[in-house]
User: What shape does this take?
Amino acid sequence: MADIISLLPDHVANQIAAGEVIQRPASVVKELLENAIDAGAHQIQLLIKDAGKTMIQVIDNGTGMSITDVRLAFERHATSKIKSADDLFSISSKGFRGEALASIAAIAHVEVHTKTEGDEIGTCLKISGSEVNDQEVSVVPKGTSIAVKNLFFNVPARRNFLKSDKVELRHIIDEFHRVVLSHPEVKFLFFQNGSELFSIPVSNFRKRIANVFGNKIEEKLIPVEEMTSVAGLEGFVVKPEFAKKSRGQQFFFVNRRFIKSPFLHHAICNAFEGLIRDQYHPGYFLHIQIDPKTIDINIHPTKTEVKFEEEQHLYAIIKSMVKHSLGMFQVTPVLDFDRDPGLDTPYSLQQKNPKQMPSVEIDSSFNPFNQGGKSQNKVAKSSWETLYSGLDIPASPINTDEELKLAIEQTPKVFQLFKKYIVTTTRSGLLIINQHRAHKRVLYEAFLTSITKKNINSQQLMFPKEILLSNDQIALFKEYDENLSAMGFIVKRQKNKLTITGVPSICEDSQVGQLFEDVLASTESSEHFDSFSQGDYIAKLMARSLSIATNKSLSTLEQQALVDDLFACKEPLTCPFNRKIFITLDKEELDKKLN
Assistant: This one.
């Protein structure tokens, strides 16, 4: 039998490695920024075009590379970070696998300019699809500039799987945040299509958080610090009253490397128990300094997952530390998070103009101290009658059986079940409707119509709402501004502040802040879903944010109005996220179940 096993060619092996390490433009950004940090840079510039699809360039003032090193750096498993297997148990640098640059060069056009401090001239190296096209001398300052162009040019299937520029930009910004927050001693500049998104100076950790998420976050931070034999911990947690429904401000750093750890996240959630409501997430920025020999960071190509030797101890320390800090700053549980539902505007009346107020007649001759029986009764009766003037009241009570039957038939045949479902009758059986999904469908179609026809009614806010934006949120708002205006939002932007003076009539004042937070959320905090346009994406987000909650009590009129609105929609079968809105139980099914 002929031999069938053979070694893969280098360029094929590199493309396979690229599939593990380089998933999207943000992966390239992460690897290049971490290499710049490892090179000892004090200033790093990130330049991207078309959300990284056209170009990603990182320029640093680090140590640079010699002529030999720059050529060797793009070979697979070439690294300056480890020399022996023992080094794997004491890793302090970010990149050490020797896969990143080789993987990037396998699926893009790469151009490198680099020079060490001791060299008089630098080197320029050009690589395309793992093949070196040119290497020559170059006059450049100390440090390294790496430009990655036309990502996935030779893997079109991978390129087709990339999302829109908006989504890819969000992923890049998230990776940028993770590197920036872990290194406040480094200055960072970030340019997208020639426009500056971030200019972050050297600072301490607290100021660095403010530089990334806006100055207003400083007043929301509670410092935490603990030194133990297991690990040293320091950083900040966000005050419970500022917890959000969406994620985006959860950062763990182990030895200055960003990691994801559901286990440790649970420890913090446990410490916040009783302080934040269900389905809300605490914010935190925590540095964990630990002996590298007690962790394993070599369990995933992206190195964002870490295995701890003393995981249970670390869990207990973090939970205790956060609880202690919350107690030190006198944070106490909130007893009631819910508004009185009786004070909410009924759904059926939200889009209607108020009727004329009932008129009140005043009898100036009325004397409450008059003890005359007949006169007093007469006055009292006339006073009560004036309270109902202007209201629609039946001329006479229902007296006959026919009138009673007619009144019953006109009563809406709906009722609410478990504060989640609306049940109504049909000719053949029962209809059971999920109220939350039904309302999402109604709102979604209303917003899509408003974007198309641009005829939605806005209501002026009595007190304008001001929202401070971070730099990345400003970039996203510029993309959404036109569609938000078409939906009925009247917004003015001055630098990093939005002033909202008008909102759609179906939006309550109290919902405005959360709504803009959802629309401008980061990739970590927002659910991703398919959408055929930017307007469709925003309509889905707004429908989700403004829809009736699952556990909300609805009056009979509200239930009937929602049912009527649902079946006036073009697509009443599913919600905007393709989930079934209602089910039917016909007479035959009921008969079978009762046999």
Remarks:
- Residues 334-339, 373-398, 404-411, 523-527 have pLDDT under 50 and may be disordered.
- Residues 10-202 form a domain with the Heat Shock Protein 90 fold (CATH 3.30.565.10).
- DSSP finds 17 helices and 22 strands in the chain.
- The first strand starts at residue 43 and ends at 49.
